[in-house]
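Put briefly, the fold is written as integer tokens. The lines below illustrate.
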Amino acid sequence: MDPKVERLRSAVSRLRRELAAYPAEFPDRGIAEDELAALAAMASHGTPEVPRLRRSLLLIAGSVGSVSALTTALTEVREAVDVFGGPTAG
């Protein structure tokens, strides 16, 4: 398997586990869970499309970005998406 895809799968899996274990509810939790599931599906089907990866990352970050307990796992997902390259917002 492509090391980039494996890194993405690992990072997404970690964030999904940490989000599932996070006890508090927050308004956009469902959005984060849905987008993490989408990222996991993309990673399991080969090399994902960069624009779709970035869109999912933005939605996840917007959903869980204020939850400090998830910051490290979210950063891992962002870094895993970044290794795919492509255009960056800026």
About this structure: The chain has a mean pLDDT of 91. The two ends are 31 Å apart (CA to CA).
